[in-house]
Amino acid sequence: MNITLEQAQAVVEAAKAKATEIGKQMNIAVVDAGANLVAFVRMDNAWLGSVDIAQRKARTAKFFDMPTGELGKLSQPGGALYQIEHSNGGLITFPGGIPIKNDQGEVIGAIGVSGDTVDNDHKVAKAGVDGVK
Questions:
Q1: Which of 51, 57, 8, 13 is nearest to 30 (CA)?
Q2: What pLDDT does residue 66 have?
Q3: What are phi and psi of 70, to 5 degrees?
Q4: Cα separation of 71 and 83, whole Å?
Q5: Distance in angstroms (rounded) separating the CA atoms of residues 79 and 62
Q6: What is the pTM of this model?
């Protein structure tokens, strides 16, 4: 099951609304169940360097079907997944990427957000996930 374009656009709009509410310019990426980019927005004046980070957060969240911040906890020195971020062409293991599930609990895609602190990136990503229809 894949996220539809309509759903992906709703996710982006919900995330963009949250970013606007907190006064931050963000890059917002949505990927499907195969980790392929479906929707992307770079808000005016959002950091160019965060374009790639947002997309990598979304792919990382989908590759492992878990929030990137949770993967980060498992990849600390001494952890079972230490240095996993060097696999798959480069992963992002800090907050801002979250899997997107349908009503049946199946992962249909993921969102990645980058452009401010990881706490704000995660808040905006969470708002996007909550906006899926």
A1: 8
A2: 95
A3: -70, -40
A4: 11
A5: 21
A6: 0.93
